[in-house]
Amino acid sequence: MIDWKQIDTVLLDMDGTLLDLNFDNYFWKEFVPLNFAKQRGLSIEAAKQQLEPLFKSMEGRLEWYCLDYWSNALQLDIAALKAEIAESIAVLPHVILFLEKLKLSPRKVVLVTNAHRDSLTLKMQKTALQHFFDDIISSHDVGLPKEHQGFWQSLQNTQVFENHNTVLIDDSLAVLHSARQFGIAHLVSISKPDSQLPNRQISDYPAIEDFRALMVGL
User: Fold this and answer.
1) pLDDT of 50-62, one tens digit each?
2) Helical residues (DSSP H) of 41-116, grouped into ranges
3) A Gene Ontology CC term for this entry (predicted)?
4) Do 110 and 50 belong to one domain?
5) Who is most buried in 64, 79, 137, 159, counting CB within 10 A?
6) Which domain CATH number covers 15?
């Protein structure tokens, strides 16, 4: 799937790529509505009906990923709520073996995530994956989400990678579309970002269920 002899830089997403997206799906679809309902004296169904259009309106924007934004908008301490269920944060199968192999290679490995720094810190504390990366970049540091062309330009300016020998592995099709538009040559998606949901059918990009598929030649 990847000719590793052609790759000098590896860009890795976090949620849904290295980490099980089940944590975030449960958090936003169930745990936040539960606490919003308690705060407002609503049923959970009524809370979900109020929250769904709010969430939908921010998809693809930096605010969607910003814990400070949602804490203010919902009058809930989102970072504290995430910490409450941090035991559910999990690494996807064979990710650590893949990262160990990458670490032994000469390639530059950069975590590029839309996650807010508070969420990023919590997840690194829980998983201890941070030592595998040469750098960790949050879109909140850049001021633009990965869906935006400006993110990739800023990343290239700071990380100094060449499009033709860089691979991005990301579960978000919108992010992969953006990276393709920018010119990143090697793109891989994740067919099972949430361990509790069925595999997704992805036709636009090569897709893996777990990282064993990428270890050949590494």
Assistant:
1) 999 999 999 888 9
2) 44-57, 67-74, 78-84, 95-103
3) cytosol
4) no
5) 137
6) 3.40.50.1000
